[in-house]
């Protein structure tokens, strides 16, 4: 079955703020970029690299809520194994 999920408005706004932040780490920026790519694009899926970065972001206790929002969106749109 094809992926029909897209990034919602709240997650896209959070991802945009993550990308604009100077203090955000590389993994969070990778996740945010992936989430924004999938805004309004139901056929796009997260790459394995983006899904791995999203997993790391969600497990890291220092990560902010905006990064976690983007990470959740990215993981929801990843290919299932």
What does this structure look like?
- There is one protein chain.
- It is built from four helices and no strands.
- The chain has 81 residues and is mostly helical.
- It has one domain (9-38, 47-76).
- Helix 1 (9-20) runs antiparallel to helix 2.
- The two termini are 13 Å apart.
- The mean pLDDT is 90.
Helix content: 55-70%
Largest sheet: none
Shape: globular
- Approximate strand percentage: under 5%
**What class would the helix/strand composition place it in?**
mainly alpha
Which tags fit this structure?
81 residues, 4 helices, mainly alpha
Describe the SSE topology.
Layout: H1 9-20, H2 26-37, H3 48-59, H4 65-76
Brief summary:
α1 (9-20) packs across α4 (65-76).
């Amino acid at each position: 079955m094809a992926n029909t999920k897209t990034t919602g408005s709240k997650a896209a706004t959070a991802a945009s703020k993550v990308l604009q932040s100077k203090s955000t780490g590389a993994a969070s920026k990778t996740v945010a970029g992936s989430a924004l790519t999938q805004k309004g694009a139901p056929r796009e899926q997260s790459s394995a690299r983006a899904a791995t970065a999203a997993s790391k972001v969600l497990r890291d206790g220092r990560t902010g809520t905006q990064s976690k929002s983007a990470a959740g969106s990215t993981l929801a749109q990843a290919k299932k194994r």
